[in-house]
Predict the structure.
Amino acid sequence: MRYGRALSAQASSRFIYLIAAAVIFVVLARLLGPEQLGQYAWAASFLAIAIALADGGMSPVLARDLVQTGERRHAWFANFLAFRLALGTVVALGGIVVAMLIAPQQVRLPVILCCAVLPVLAARFYDPVFQVANRPFLSLYPTIAFVALAPLGIAAAMLAAEPVGWAVLAYGAAGTGYGLVGAMMGWRLLRPDFTEVGREGMSEIGRAIAPIMVSALITALAQRVDVLIVAEIAGDTAAGQYNAAYRFVDIGAAMIVTVLMPLLTLFSALASVSRERLVVAFRACMRLIATANTVVALLAIPLAAPVLRMVYGAAFEPAATALALLAWKLAAAFVSLLAFVMIMATASIRFVIWSSAAALVVILLLNWLLVPSLSATGAAIATLAAELMQMTVNLVMAARAVPGAFERGWWSRFAASLAAALVIAALPAGGLPAFVQGILPTVTFVALMAALRALPGNPLPFLRVDSAPR
């Protein structure tokens, strides 16, 4: 089992997916403008919450248990699919009722139609199947289906008299195509044994995913409810601007999943072979991820406004402060998820219920307090605060699950370098050119990390399992 091969396969398909989705969103933003984009964002956020509930956060569990169940995997996979179908159907019916009650008139019918196909629309869990079957490059086929259907949204925005609703339907059609192709490929690879489907098997799946399913719902609410709150309190235009900034987080989150999901299978295998090797691999990955994401977040401080202006247009530039804050949220999420992957491979994850619930409370409370006066910036502050809280919890739990996983010496040098960079960022310009003032914090951070011999190395040599269980 090689991490590099699995990553390159998933990265190829994810890269194509991200590029297509990003291009389509940018074109939609320019065609629709902030107000209509805010309406589209409401529908997309509602469907994202429904998809998260129907998915139940099962992909990590699927990756882990397909490795651990061995010869039972065909029966286990059949029960997994049956459980997902039942859950997706229940969520679809509930989503239709809720959409009828609260969805804005402009997107109500499209949202209801998308909810009707929710079990397929939410079927985005096939990468672990392709990886376990040693065919990771098959993930390209569902992506091709998505890329073929997604441009319908642009056509709708250009040609339709009511473009927002048609753009939402195009979003649903592209996701449904992705799910259908993935289902066919996964079915052919693992051949689920539906004769073994029964109450006991589905109950086993339910018990395995219950903590992470509750957490996935709460996390989806925490990640998307801010868009709904901004739309309700500050209006569609502010929601569109905030969603344009948040789109960078969505792209980054997809990159996080691409990079880290193969690690779950590998960490599970390493945990059964050698805890010492697991710790070494985890440390190498954490050093690289923490450093690289901090550099990106520091660069976002000066670049947020010009990037928004260049990508979306001047109408979206008011969200620059929100984008700079969301870059730190993304950096924290990357570190947090790596710690969570380590926990999933080695220990219980029941804590995610209360930690995710606490994050949701923080999101709701801070949005209620800050959005009326700060609009999109207030929502970004709330999101960042909740992410930092969850990151802290995951780091503590990972340290408890695998003693010695964190190097105190390296983290001390990292913290000192980051503190110095943030002090530089907070200082007044003092007559320096804007470009120099903008990159000085990043240069300070990298220079101090180099001087303290804390720059990360290549983790790939440590991410190989020669004797992983079949």
